[in-house]
Amino acid sequence: MRIRLRALAAVGAMLPLIMGADAALAQKSGGILKVYHRDNPPSASIHEEATNSTVMPFMNVYNNLVIFDQTVARQSMDTIIPDLGESWSWNDDKTELTFKLREGVTWHDGEPFTAEDVKCTWDLILGKKEGARLRKNPRRIWYHNLEEVTTNGDHEATFVLKRPQPSFIALLASGYSPVYPCHVSPADMRTKPVGTGPFKFVEFKQNEYIKLEKNEDYWDEGKPYLDGIEFTIISSRSTRVLGFINGEFDLTYSTDITIPLLKDVNNQAPDAVCSLVPTNVSRNLIVNSDAPPFDDPNIRKAMMLTIDRQAFIDILSEGKSDIGGVMLPPPEGLWGMPPEMLETVPGYGKDIEKNREEGRKLMEEAGYGPDKRLPVKVSTRNIEIYRDPAVILIDHLKHIYIDGELEVVETPLWHAKVARKDYMVGMNLTGVGVDDPDVVFYENFACDSERNYTGYCNKELEELFDKQSAETDMEARKKLVWEIDKKLQEDGARPIIWHERAATCHQPWVKDYTVAENSSYNGFRWEHVWLDK
Amino acid sequence: MPRPENNPGAMAIDHDVELARAGANVTGWASGLLFQVRRHPLGAFGAVIVVVFVLAAAFAPWIAPLDPLATNPRASLAPPGSEYFLGADFMGRDMYSRIIYGARISLAVGLASTFLGCLFGIALGLMSGFLLGWVDLAIQRIIDIMQALPLLVMALVMAASLGPSLENTIIAISIPVIPHVARVIRSNTLALREMPFVEAARAQGMSEVRIAVRHVMPNTIAPVIVLATAQLGSAILTEASLSFLGLGVPEPHPSWGRMLSESAAEYVRTAPWLVIFPGLAISLAVFGTNLLGDALRDILDPRERS
Amino acid sequence: MVSYIIRRFLLMALTLFGMSVLIFVLLRLVPGNIVDLLFDSAGFVNPADKALLEEELGLDRPIIVQYFDWITGLMQGDLGYSYVSEQPVWTEIAPRIPITAKLAVLALVFSIIFGVPLGVISAVRQNTMTDYILRVVSLSGLSLPSFWLGLIILMLFVQWFGYMPIYDRAPESFWIELGMYMIPAAAVGFRSSALVMRLTRSSMLEVMRQDYIRTARSKGASERSVNYHHALRNALLPVVTIIGIEAAFLIGGLIVTETVFNIPGVARFLVEAIRWRDYPIVQNLVMLIAVVVVFTNFIVDLLYAALDPRIKYSE
User: Fold this and answer.
1) Candidates B69, B72, B262; nearest CB to A384
2) Chain B partners within 8 Å of A382 (Cβ)
3) Which fold has domain B41-304?
4) pLDDT over 60 (residue A490)
5) Which tens digits make up the pLDDT trace of A445-456?
6) A96: β partners
7) What is the mean pLDDT of residues A326-343?
8) For residues B266 and C140, what is the distance between their CA atoms, to the nearest angstrom?
9) Are C244 and B6 within 8 A, CB to CB?
10) What pTM was estimated for this model as a whole?
11) Neighbors of chain A by Cβ distance (3+ pairs < 8 Å)
12) Which residue range is the domain that position C165 belongs to?
């Protein structure tokens, strides 16, 4: 089911028209962009966090070396444009990526930006920087193939890789990859971030607001257009959406408008421009295959068979989300399995009753039946986006003689519990930073990844990870990726239930705002956004 | 409600005598009941509400038309109508059935926490008022500490430190009840221990513990009933508030407060039945216990009588 | 009198000390700590990094040492640093105090404006239809969850005025601020006014039964004069004192209301800090609330004693 929002389709069709009109219309400078934020960001330091609560407000403070073009919705290798790295080149064996850096750029505190800052940033991530360390380092695994960063003078930096990795540059284009100043400690970056970006950090008042102001000395002459950006933190969703409907905010939090809410927004604020896009956040199951009952592959398979993915989507997003494997499904997703292939994976077949019949047979073989039901604990976090699907899962498990009991785990205990393997099956959520197999596979399924919660480890498959990563022929790589994805689903490594869609809305007077459609982590740099008021 | 500690001894009058005087020519419990119903129509109305909720809770599986946990993709946000009497939530769960089952949670939490609170409150109050000396002093200080925080703040801190579960919510809510009960019992005990019949028992050589349990405790039942009814409503409200803040009874229990929290609030305008009905259920249940509590106080505490 | 005040002061100190121990221990009973939460936002837990972070925050030390640290700091006016914002606790708490205080005062004003007159009317017209209606209304005030009332008010405001009375930016002037707080204060004040009304009514009724009222009546004073001059004045004493106590307890009601209306006061901040296991914020905030409650009780008792000659300074 891939029903696109009618409004979006209409905008798409009119795109050339609008662009023509916009070209004639000069961008206006000035005004404060008012955005609501859904929760209190844990800190301002993007490199220490793995949530877009931090990326969305603070991406504007920084520059990357390269960045996904912020005016293109579907981000890919082809939409990467220069940021602090003016130009780049690969060496012949594709293991060295050299950037020529922009000159005359200064940090918000007046210090000059040099190649040393680039080296410092990635040394910090690799844990090589003397006298400073990130207290949390969630993207260490992204750079498992990075040997070191070398500099040549003040304006050239080279990333030396262990083996060829064409997608490496896509990692650098993510919102998760800002360049940090060498002279500011990681602790200060958490509370008073200093960057080179289009907006300067002014104030972050816990649970209240984040204020950014225009960087008058921004290297891109004439930009940004906005005088500043204000994020107001409102934890109650109904309250903040009402605020948007009433025009108190110019822009919603990224993909905060769920599908049921979208109807509401469309009715109450018909002028608002909403883009319904995949969030590239999947809801999935983590299954403990080391302990009973799911150490029995047949019971695991039975569970896969009883899941009615479409029912989850119908209930939680009125049918408007997508079924897929670990990679975001096409067309927005660049690497997802084609539907024909997907249907051949167990449990993905359309005939749910037949699947469940098969599941019951498997359960009966394992010694269960209508009179001997299997009690199972379904663990999840005490957050509604986790809880709700868990409730549906329990309902589906009933069909194969499994009585699920919901175990709600408080946030601070969740990761520790999962690490202890103190669960049977858990409802989980996985956000993907960049729609690229190098991010998804290594982060979630590599044996030594810290974010591989289930500890899934398949050396054979890991070799395939490396093989696809080094592959320079994109079509051949795609085939490999599909094969890996299918295998991951068959192994029940982290069974994917669905890929969520949600909308980001802005008021009609917000111009040139593009909502990224294949990741929720890379589309928040707004030097080109302006207000037509 | 005046804080009981401000009028120590006020409830120490022998309620049996007062009751007899109030219904002087009443014989048998049925006509006695009828007499009170006529005297306190509002209280009787409250009693009816409470009984309805108790029955709903007790016979939930027979009354509720559907499984309160069963989801239905086709009924997501179904408006109130013939199929779903009070509508369905966004997971297609029947609101009517959930509210009926919710009565179980609310009443279970309310009654259990009130009972627990009263139990410990009575024990502490009796000990304090009867043993006096350093025991009294120590208990008074503990009560002071427990009362140094507003009820919801205390419950919140307790709920957070115990973690979310049905049992822990009950414990968290029962703790702020203890000092209230203990204070009333203490002041009653202080008055009662000087009564002639206690002196008489003492003269007969009865042990202090025995006197406390046999003679003093039964005479504190009336104020406890009054207090417990008042606490019941407040306990139901506290549970709803805690669940609303996400620190109370966890899913999948259909708690009224939880139904009103985050997810339901999202649909304030598109599906107002998700907000209106659980809120009404809470209000009505608390209203009923409050009406009943008022009437009970009028009946059992003669000072309030006109 | 002086010895009574000294005694009360010592007891207060003891209570606050007990509260400090209680809250400190309770917080450490909570499974999971700030470090777990900090790692949660990074999406993983690295045991080595976690241990380093615990050391950095001093969480690896014995609980008694941690408690002693906190208390000695508190004595010197140093509340420590928030785990989450890494800012001094006082800078985090201080700007939120006046917000909650203003809300509480406003709610209190509401409760008095409505509660006292209605309570008097209800008492004077005891057992009439007016009395019944007022009693039912006041009881319903005690029965409605304040967050539900808040949600319904929000709903109606949007429906009728297309405007939502939530806090979205710092108010520019006193009047805007007053307007902004009016509605949440009313949502909380509704409950308090119900309470005040019931109290006024029962207090009035009690006074009206006293001998001197009967005397006044028998001397031929008009019914109106008896009711309003003699009875009301004497009935207000307990009412005023209890209103004082209620002021401190309003903090409880404000927790949910501040959440619904997105008001950045201390009450909502407490919930957020509890969720975040931000011990320095929670323990200091709880102590602050306890100090307010205990002191209000103390002052109310003093006032009560000063105003009512029947109360003696001993227990």
Assistant:
1) B262
2) 164, 246, 250
3) MetI-like fold (1.10.3720)
4) yes
5) 999 888 888 888
6) A160
7) 93
8) 26
9) no
10) 0.81
11) B, C
12) 97-307
